[in-house]
Amino acid sequence: MKNVLLCVTGSIAAYKAADIANRLTKDGYHVEAVMTESAQELITPLTFRTLTKNRVYSNMFQEYEPDKVEHISLAKKTDLCLIAPATANIIGKIANGIADDMVTTVVMALKDVPVYICPAMNTNMYENPIVQRNIKTLSELGYYFIEPKSSYLACGDLGKGALADVELIVETVEQHLKK
């Protein structure tokens, strides 16, 4: 069974990550969720624990299992990491090597593991030259991106920045894992 690490960040699209977790779990993948503090303001860890039947990780300093360094343990058993939704903040942190929460420390500990990043943010944020530079940097380093779509956004704006369709995200992940 392939292990998918689903990293959920503080975009309003975080509720769609529950559908991603549910679909991947039903398709036979072992899914573990890692959440930022901001993500937990939008959706609860209980949702992911219920859908995946697995523990949800969020606190770098909580002892989940005795004698384990959780971010290293998670990184070692991951076959694919999916960051959905990915905020401008998390993209910037990863692009600049900042590891100050459970999501970023696990991502920094991954080695030879594909990381798919699914941006979700306001159009102006997505098109910001700094965000685009961070995306370019990560792409050059071998990170994969599933582009956001154009849609009406939570703020009422129309433009590119909405999380890609759940079906596309799940299909992309499953195709990669079947290689």
TrEMBL record:
Kindly state a single biological-process term from the GO annotations of this entry: coenzyme A biosynthetic process
Q: Which EC numbers does the record give?
A: 4.1.1.36, 6.3.2.5
Q: Name one GO molecular function term.
A: phosphopantothenate--cysteine ligase activity
- Name any GO cellular component annotation: phosphopantothenoylcysteine decarboxylase complex
Tell me which Gene3D superfamilies the record gives.
Flavin prenyltransferase-like
Could you tell me which residue ranges the Flavoprotein domain spans? Answer: 2-177
What keywords are annotated for this sequence in UniProt? Ligase, Lyase
| Family annotation (InterPro entries) | CoaBC (IPR005252), Flavin_trans-like (IPR036551), Flavoprotein (IPR003382)
Q: What is this protein called?
A: Bifunctional phosphopantothenoylcysteine decarboxylase/phosphopantothenate--cysteine ligase CoaBC
Which organism was this protein described from? Sinanaerobacter chloroacetimidivorans
Task: List the lineage, top down.
Answer: Bacteria, Bacillati, Bacillota, Clostridia, Peptostreptococcales
Gene for this chain: coaBC
